[in-house]
Design brief:
- The protein is 13% helix and 34% strand.
- By secondary structure, it is mostly beta strands.
- The protein folds into two domains: 2-67, no CATH class; 76-368, Kelch-type beta propeller (Neuraminidase, 6 Propeller), CATH 2.120.10.80.
- The strands form five sheets. It has an eight-stranded mixed sheet. A four-stranded antiparallel sheet has the order 3-2-1-24, with no helix packed on it. Strands 4-5-6-7 form a four-stranded antiparallel sheet, with no helix packed on it.
- The longest helix is centred in the first third of the chain and has 13 residues, at 20-32.
- The protein is globular.
- The relative contact order is 0.12.
Amino acid sequence: MAIAAGCCNNKRIKAGDPTKQQYQEEEEEEEEAPLIPGLHDHLSHICLSLLPPRLLSSVCRSWRLLLYSPYFPPFLSLYALLSSSSHTQTITFSSFDPISATWLSLPPPNPPPSFLLSHPSFIARHLSVQSVSLSGQLILLAATDHDFLPALSRPLIFNPLSNRWRLGPTIPTPRRWCASGSASGSVYVASGVGSDYSSAVARSAERWDLKKPAWEKVAQLKDGKFSREAVEAVGVKGKLCMVNVKGNAAKEGAVYDIETDLWEDMPAGMLAGWKGPAAAMEEKVIYVVEEGEGVLREYNWEMDCWKDVLESEYLKGAVQIAAGGGRVCVVRAGGGGIVVVDVVVRPARVWAVEPPPTTKVLAVHVLPRMGRAEF
């Protein structure tokens, strides 16, 4: 706190300042001045990196600029897949910067993907775009194109720090309406539908280790019952956990053990309480929102039971959730906004983030902030 009190000379325009040019010159002098008087900047970077980003942002412009430089550890932001609220098939990508409280558009992929999000033949059903986050990157794995075929033959990957998209290796069996997830440095797709229904595809599973150049097959599922919906496969404690139906309907669960390459039955207590969208925090703890009651729950592995964390009207009808940095982020019913729950404090603290105007949220992820030249 002593550092924050006596660091930068934050220049302001005062009544009587002769010209705008003088203010600009003062601003340039501030940028050239050391971050902390008496210290070389490389030492200042070490000292300031220990302070909360929001505190740095409130002190002076040079410290705000530091937040977005390569010298400061990237703070976490929200990343959202968005659709137009005017019922078009357009999808966009944005990031919510919690320091400036603003939405920033991601650069569009080149070429932009073409996804089918809805169709009159599927009344009230959303055709999912399936995405995961891993190693600080956003990865799109599966979607439906306008011919009702798998829209992605290769993963589409966004790196926030470089602010660029790239393509991953070709998926041997592109699919949609599948289980998708990430765990232990790899992304997974399992079951689902290819160009048409195939029992072989419905039982298959594939993995891409981000450090390797190609996908590899993993153990098959015991049946094809996971090709019914697009569902999340949650990576936690060296396992991949998933259920085959969303919501409160009767369902089956499966757990993939990464080390043994074996599929197991889901523990009874885990399956009984898996009544909505789920996500894992740093691959250690699973959270689920029981969408009917609006209750956020945390799974206890030792007791095989779920513990209530928070109940809120805003969580009813939850569409999707993500977890990271001690927060669980919930896409509200209809994609009308994001509810953020701080699960570190008790009682849990809750606040809302509204999406950009005229958009709906399809999915949300927690990733490092985007690289920015200016603040």
